[in-house]
Write a structure and sequence with these properties.
Length: 337
């Protein structure tokens, strides 16, 4: 395997993954296909953008002609599909684009890849397809799919399509389902970067409902390592849960961030709860640990401190996200405008 098509590689996890993969596999070439929605930020990739092994193509996974052209022209061996609408709150405000990108886009990619005869197709999915847990238990790969938000429903729809291609066409599919990621380059609309940004600016920190909802956090680079392992050594047709076994109540994370930034808890503002707010996510990652020997490298305490340090050192990146200046990066970089 040498030539990879990474979709959605200008987003948070995709950009971390591309940088990581080019470091780990020096003989690999990567094509990054990304339409650059509000979540796509090409400046994330500035350290590798001139690398001869890397090509950026602005376009959509919904464009069958374009995807087919890329597969043939770049002799793609494997696809890792990160491209998605990924924010639950946005999916509540407008579900349509989630169906269009996450379901229809994945379907288009699958069809192009099947026709072309791809060697491997890895669908980057989420633990949210399993729905919500009560106080006990963890999601395993056998937990029933039971999504509760338009986001998770659209990701579940994509997973079902990927499964059907494996079953019907013996298509070489793999699915990973990871818990909540944190780390550098996460757009400041998700919990951790938003709270860091607001705390640093002495703005209120909006905590939904009681703040007692629980998420299971993993460093983005531990997720990337797991995807790399599944891509190379996972069993075709397999589903792999990925998680850091690191559960936190939202309110406790918010307090921890305030403590690390030396800011007062009076900045916390409890706001109206998210409709259909899943109570708890918790991943059982025994399968990937046992079968592929994966284990996370980061402990949360160091990972969170490092992430806060990164956001502090990346004031321009954060400022450009807020002002929208990051949207000009493509024209500057690729068209000299
Ligand atoms: P993100 O929102 O930061 O990035 C998504 C990227 O996809 C953006 O660069 C965007 O421009 C691109 N994109 C959107 N529509 C596209 C289209 N039609 N064609 C091509 N590109 C398109 O998302 P993320 O947090 O990096 O998540 C990446 C993937 O991982 C998603 O599939 C998500 O469901 C999954 N995931 C995320 C998390 C998490 O905690 N962030 C956890 C588990 C799984
Ligand atoms: P988020 O980062 O949006 O990820 P997800 O909803 O996919 O798990 O949210 C993480 C948790 O934080 C979730 O329980 C909702 C909560 N939350 C807040 O309390 N306030 C906020 O401003 C945001 C963005 C999230």
């Amino acid at each position: 395997m040498k030539n990879l098509l990474i979709t959605g590689g200008a987003g948070f996890i995709g950009s971390n993954y591309i940088i990581d993969m080019l470091k780990k596999h020096t003989n690999y070439s990567i094509v990054n296909l990304d339409i650059l929605t509000y979540a796509g930020n090409l400046s994330n990739l500035s350290e590798i953008e001139k690398d001869s092994r890397y090509t950026f193509i602005k376009g959509s996974i919904n464009n069958l002609e374009l995807v087919s052209y890329i597969l043939h022209d770049y002799k793609i061996d494997a696809i890792v599909n990160f491209a998605a609408e990924s924010h639950v709150d946005r999916s509540i405000l407008g579900p349509d684009i989630f169906v269009e990108t996450n379901v229809k886009g994945t379907s288009t990619l699958l069809e192009a890849a099947r026709e072309y005869g791809i060697e491997k197709f890895l669908q980057v999915s989420t633990d949210e397809v399993y729905g919500s847990l009560g106080d006990d238990g963890k999601f395993t790969e056998n937990t029933h799919i039971s999504p509760n938000s338009p986001y998770s429903a659209s990701k579940a729809g994509a997973d079902m399509l990927v499964r059907s291609y494996y079953k019907t066409f013996k298509f070489p599919a793999l699915i990973t389902r990871c818990s909540n990621n944190y780390g550098p380059y996460q757009f400041p609309e998700k919990l951790i970067p938003l709270m860091i940004k607001n705390a640093r600016e002495d703005k209120p920190l909006p905590v939904y409902g009681t703040g007692k909802n629980i998420r299971d956090w993993i460093h983005v680079l531990d997720h990337c390592t797991a995807i790399d392992l599944v891509l190379h050594n996972g069993e075709i047709g397999g589903i792999y849960n990925i998680g850091g076994e690191n559960e936190w109540r939202n309110i406790d994370i918010v307090k921890e961030i305030l403590k690390l930034l030396d800011k007062p808890e009076s900045l916390i503002k409890f706001v109206t709860d998210r409709p259909g707010h899943d109570f708890r996510y918790a991943i059982d990652p025994s399968k990937i640990k046992k079968e592929l020997g994966w284990k996370p490298k980061y402990n949360f305490s160091d990972g969170l401190k490092e992430t806060i340090k990164w956001y502090k050192a990346s004031q321009k990146w954060v400022g450009d996200c807020t002002s929208g200046a990051y949207k000009n990066y493509y024209d500057k970089m690729y068209h000299g405008r």
